[in-house]
TrEMBL record:
This is Molybdopterin molybdenumtransferase. Belongs to the MoeA family. GO terms for biological process: Mo-molybdopterin cofactor biosynthetic process. GO terms for cellular component: cytosol. Its EC number is 2.10.1.1. GO terms for molecular function: metal ion binding; molybdopterin molybdotransferase activity. Signal peptide: none annotated. The keyword Magnesium applies.
């Protein structure tokens, strides 16, 4: 058994990287850049106005009031610009190029217009209302580095670089194998007195999709070695990462590791000193990664959040530690001391404070739905009182 930090370090050190593909920008959300995004033009492309108003020569407004002749207009996208000669001004709009001769824009609320003459009476403020050419970025500059996970904000920068397509890592294909004789398709369990709805694979697939994975199938399998070995072979052919749930512990029907034995499974780790999720394991068979999650639903989802999320970021070229951004928050209620396993307490927000859930059972499903946060508590951590600070992670 290894510690949580060691397990994270082993994931961070994995060599697996998904292939690279070119995709259009409107498919880029959540994808991880394989190459830097380099600006192919300056932004702004010229000195442009930041406001709607009048482009002027500041020297003409040294003494107020002043009257300037209107010499033309400048709209965004207009190729030919009128010149702002002495004692002249040009009507200008936000984003439009500043015409030659002008060195300031006066907003329209501060002037009065009388046909072809504009009157300036009010004192000019400090702002010139001009965005200089290249003030945002210059052609040739790197706007986004390889490894960046694209979101609504960074996609704006990618498009602004004047790219229609970008190079990203392929989403690792994830197959989820849920093992257990008792498991039934949701909607059918009540027909048998001993069946339970197979729930975990749905959450694991959803989490994979959330963290750059491409769910490539969920399969419900009985605890039968022949069936399991066949399913393991098929999954290794079709996926980059196989997540197998249940059968991770020491029960007589716990076959999750053995089913990958004929495919030459080698372990990266087995068991991590965490609570819940201790039986989690990671291995490699026929060049594919296999993550084993405990069957208990809360344990499975906690282990998926702690290991599957960074693993998928790693495989798709991102920074695995960015999946585990712990931050400090204040407890609404106390927590007991921790013994020999690093503990991840399920909690929710109570206003801006952290409320540990009363049900900490690793088999819980109702409390799992309410668990917005994981509170990280190290081995041997002393009890904490309400009002004290703890490290939390969005679950
Ligand atoms: N003697 C020991 N027993 C157990 C140990 C141990 O160290 N020694 N570890 C315990 C811990 S910790 C955990 S966690 C569980 C995990 O065991 P498994 O991964 O073998 O899980 P299963 O036995 O297959 O199932 C546990 C529980 O979860 C239900 N389950 C399983 N899969 C699903 C699914 N896909 N959807 C919904 N529910 C599922 C299953 O019916 C069981 O109730 O082992 C402890 N035991
Ligand atoms: O690790 Mo188990 O997940 O404690 O129930």
């Amino acid at each position: 058994m290894i510690g949580f930090d060691e397990a994270c370090a082993r994931i961070a050190a994995l060599p697996e990287r998904a292939a690279v593909e070119c995709i259009p920008l409107d498919q880029a959300a959540g994808r991880i850049l394989a190459t830097d995004i380099v600006a192919s033009l300056d932004a702004p492309r010229a000195d442009v106005s930041a406001m709607d108003g009048y482009a002027v020569r500041e020297a003409d407004l040294a003494r107020l009031p002043a009257r300037l002749r209107l010499a033309g207009e400048s709209f965004p996208g207009q190729p030919d610009l009128p010149e702002v000669g002495e004692r002249a001004c040009v009507r200008i709009f936000t984003g439009a190029p500043v015409p030659p001769g002008a060195d300031r824009v006066v907003i329209q609320e501060q002037v009065t217009r009388d046909g072809g003459v504009v009157r300036f009476e009010r004192p000019l403020g400090p702002a010139r209302h001009i965005r200089p050419r290249g003030g945002d970025f210059r052609a040739g500059e790197i706007l986004l580095a390889a490894g960046t996970r694209l979101d609504a904000r960074s996609i704006v920068a990618a498009a602004a670089a004047d790219l229609s397509e970008i190079e990203v890592h392929c989403r690792p294909r994830v197959i989820v194998l849920a093992t257990g004789d008792e498991l039934a398709e949701p909607g059918t369990a009540r027909a048998s007195p001993v069946a339970i709805p197979e729930s975990v694979s749905f959450g694991v697939a959803a989490m994979a999709a959330q963290w750059s994975g491409a769910p490539a199938g969920r399969y419900r399998l009985p605890d039968d070695s022949g069936v399991l070995e066949h399913a393991a072979r098929a999954a290794l052919d079709a996926a980059d990462l196989i997540v197998v749930t249940g059968g991770a512990s020491v029960g007589e029907k716990d076959h999750a590791k053995a089913m990958f034995g004929p495919a030459g499974l080698e372990f990266i780790f087995t068991k991590v000193a965490i609570k819940p999720g201790k039986p989690v394991w990671l291995g490699r068979a026929r060049g594919k990664l296999v993550l084993g999650l405990p069957g208990n639903p809360t344990s499975a989802l906690v282990a998926a959040r702690l290991f599957l999320a960074p693993l998928l970021l790693r495989m798709s070229g991102g920074d695995p530690s960015s999946a585990l951004c712990w931050r400090e928050a204040v407890l609404a209620e106390g927590l007991p001391a921790v013994r020999d396993r690093e503990t991840f307490v399920r909690a929710c927000w109570a206003g801006n404070r952290v409320m540990p859930l009363s049900d900490q059972d690793s088999g819980a499903q109702r409390a799992l739905a309410a668990a917005e946060l994981l509170v990280r508590r190290g081995i041997g951590a002393p009890a904490r009182a309400a009002g004290e600070t703890v490290d939390v992670l969005d679950f």
